[in-house]
Amino acid sequence: MPKISIIVPVCNVEKYLSKCLDSIVNQTLKEIEIICIDDGSTDDSGAILDSYSQKDSRIKVIHKKNSGYGNSMNVGMDCAEGEYIGIVESDDCILPEMYEELYRAGKESNLDFVKSDAVFWWERIGYSYNVHYDYLNEYYDKVLIGNDRHVFYKFLMNIWTGIYKSDFLKKNNIRFNETPGASYQDNGFWFQTMTFAERAMWIGKSYYMYRQDNPMASIKSEAKVLAMSNEYDYIERILKDKNVGSDGIKECNYYRLARNYGNYYRIADELKENFLDYVLKDYEKYGKDIVNEPYLIEWYRKIAENPTEFCKSTIDVKNCNKAVLENAESIVIYGAGKRGQYILRHLYNIGVYDKITNFVVSANADTQYIGRIGVVNISELAGNMSDKLLVIISASNGSETYRAMESMLCHYKINNYIGSDDIINNFYSIC
User: Fold this and answer.
1) Same domain, 87 and 57
2) Is residue 15 located within the same domain as residue 85?
């Protein structure tokens, strides 16, 4: 029996597939099987898979008609013979020791699943950052049990940084929702594993390289817009069918409402107003389960007051800020810490990354580069200003740090700047 069955769902990823497969076959843990599900690829992905399977007997390839992500994952799980199951998306990569270290932890502590941190990765621009939640440090690297379940949901939501005991998945009949295409089916699998596991662990290391190279496209299909809501309908049915208690139902309701927030800023503008009809219905039904999330409560409150005006206002503000970014010939990010890098990621998704010339800082820089973008003192910027250069202040608008940065810009007679909230609050970003 293989120690781990690794499922790799594949659909038209010829550009990235070889690098992904190389990272899997080179794992230090050799007792693995690699199940690649070709979901009707129309590029060379199928041929690449067949070539790899001829060179490595651990690789099993299943070619099938396109039936969606959920069905592909279920086909893979049905074929899996391993003690544990892992998942690698076919445009991502993993570090060589990932499965050996996860398997060791899983076996030593008899875990239903064990997960780790992740690296979000932009290969094209030479940039990555490690996702680790400092506020959860006391919960890393220890066995968490059912009584800790409220903590489970706080870690990075994903299905691919860990391994799941096969018997645990079978015992609880944990499957993927078989809706068409890639329609957030990972949400249902993630929620079920969080809800039914009795022994779990998060390792405070990162082994998984989560590719972010392609800017997040707007959703232009109305059916796709409602896919997230449909997925949470599916989760709710499962929880009720399995008589999960009220705490689990409340978690489901909260995540449904939280996902609406991100989905609204992600979808195409022409679909936003109709989407708000569904958002308000969800809020009326589930709003009581938003606790200790003032930003989310305020967001729904503003929508409820006047959905049409809210929609018009958010689109107008976004378009205004987008015009400012597009009219700039070059962009400088003031501040090179976590929030400055958050702005970098937003600008990449918006499509204006190539305009970024530098990060600037008020004191000595801790590093010379972030990715391929240089970090310089603000004094160097002052002598190279043009009317077409835009500075984005990374600090929160109106904060003490923001005012200090604004004062420094005034000192150097730099007047063309905007606050980071104008970017963060009006454009979608996964990270």
Assistant:
1) yes
2) yes
Within a domain: 217: no
- 155, 188, 211 - which closes a domain: 211
336: three-class secondary structure by DSSP: coil
Rounded Cα distance between 11 and 91, Å, is 10
> From CA 299, how far away is CA 293, in angstroms rounded?
10
Give the pLDDT confidence of 145-180 residue by residue, as tens digits: 999 999 999 999 999 999 999 999 999 999 999 988
CATH of the domain at 106: 3.90.550.10
Cα 235 from Cα 342, distance rounded (Å):
31
Is 392 inside any structural domain? yes
Q: What is the pLDDT of residues 274-330, one digit of tens each?
A: 999 999 999 999 999 998 899 999 999 999 999 999 999 999 999 999 999 999 999
Phi and psi angles of residue 174, each rounded to the nearest 5 degrees, phi first: -85, 120
The stretches of 56-137 forming alpha helices (DSSP H) are: 69-79, 98-109
Number of CB atoms found within 10 A of residue 199's CB = 17
CA angle 340/332/429 to nearest 5° reads 45
φ/ψ region of 292 (left if φ > 0, alpha if ψ in -120 to 50, else beta) reads left
Task: Tell whether the model's pLDDT for residue 383 goes beyond 90.
Answer: no
Is 80 in the same domain as 141? yes
Whether the pTM exceeds 0.90: the reply is yes
Q: Has residue 134 been placed in a domain?
A: yes
179 and 57 assigned to the same domain: yes
Tell me the residue type at 35. I
Q: Examine the domain organization and report whether 92 and 198 are in the same domain.
A: yes
CA–CA distance, 82 with 37 (Å, rounded to integer): 16
**Residue 100's closest CA among 162, 27, 163, 192?**
27
* Range of the structural domain that residue 402 is part of: 322-424
Tokens of 192: 């079920």
